[in-house]
TrEMBL record:
This is TetA. The lineage of its organism: Bacteria, Pseudomonadati, Pseudomonadota, Gammaproteobacteria, Enterobacterales.
Length: 50
């Protein structure tokens, strides 16, 4: 959790520098969708594992 608070903004910053202005919204939307999906799947997966 703590690394996500630092890691995700850093990842967004690094990736946004690699994408041109016209695709910034698509990139940020994709990252938000990925974050939401992992917030749902992660607990289910790790509950089953442990």
């Amino acid at each position: 959790l703590a690394s996500g608070g630092i890691g995700m903004p850093a990842l967004q910053a690094m990736l946004s520098r690699q994408v041109d202005e016209e695709r910034q919204g698509q990139l940020q939307g994709s990252l938000a969708a990925l974050t939401s999906l992992t917030s749902i799947v992660g607990p289910l997966l790790f509950t089953a594992i442990y």
